[in-house]
Amino acid sequence: MAKEFLINCYLVFFKVIFTLCKIFRLHRKIVFVCSYTDNNQFVYDEMKHRGSETEVVFLCRGKAVFTHFGSTGEMVIPFETMNIWQFVRSAYHLATAKLVVVDNYFGFLSVVNFKKDVLCIQLWHACGAFKTFGLKDHSVTFRSARARARFSTVYRHFDKIVVGSDAMEAIFRQSFGLGDAHFIHLGIPRTDLFFDLKKQAEIKDSLNKMSSGKKIILYAPTFRDQPLEELGLDLNRMEEELSKDYVLILRLHPSDRGKMINLSWDHKFLIDGSKWNSVNELLLGTDLLVTDYSSIPFEFALLNRPMIFFPYDLNSYEKNRGLWENYEQMVPGPVANSTDEVIRLIKRDTFDLRQIAAFSEKWNRYSTGQSSSKIVDYLTACMNK
Q1: pLDDT digits (tens, 9 = 90+) for 99-125
Q2: Phi, psi angles (nearest 5°) of residue 195
Q3: Which domain holds residue 357?
Q4: What Rg do the C-alpha atoms of the chain give, in angstroms?
């Protein structure tokens, strides 16, 4: 109740400031409201490559995102903070921009009414989904009626949603409660990296040096809403059985990494990938992916390399968070229920790459290496209307 009260206070204040700022005229300006970096960065880079003179402002949720975009030289403002000046500046730029690009759920959209010539575009942070979200997230049923109404209002503000596949569009329809007119099939900009053969070779070479030429396993468990108490995998057992031919890069969410105080990073088998700027760059050098409910496999499938799925808490996760379908039918690779099973699958090394190719075709249909260019074309056309 206290949290809901604070959220409502924040939104009422934001609405007042935003409404006052609407007295100013619209500018030829794009505001990126960011909780992630890659998609927005790829679009921005394409704009700069074309010599765009459109004003750009980044509103950044989280210190890491703020630091990342600080290097662009554009106006970068921390978002959703308690700093009044930053609060007012954010509302002003949102009220005076012709285009607003968001990459996540942002509560401010529930209380603003943009001018009629403004377009709000959702550039979602994942290419596909195993776990439910939005209106289909199981936790929504435990929220207040006011909170559920707020969610729906936010989603209705997405004028256009960029999608990389018809399959993801179908999920967005259910998650956001929106229809045909909201979707544009332009592909996901950060997947352009997977078609850059030069960049792929550079990163692969860099990671090969770090791994001393051994094959690279990436273990990337999804971020969990509840505190992470264990990794699932027995890393000592993995090292005993696989260190002759492999190294293991562990990619944890930053808030989870700090809790893993018993991990030892001072030996050659285990490498900390949690601070790597881009997980997709890690994927370019990865020979085999081990994960659970993360959206990473949807992009990794573009490389047509093997994956093992290790949902060590499947029953509880499905109950508390929810999955779209039967887990084993959704994933493009073998499912393991123990560390020993993971090890056996790695040693056997018999993966069905045709299954991965079919999975990629389903989820990456419109992501063909030109997505950043197509999105900038679209944004430019909207700006010139």
Answers
A1: 999 999 999 999 999 999 999 999 999
A2: -110, 0
A3: 193-363
A4: 22
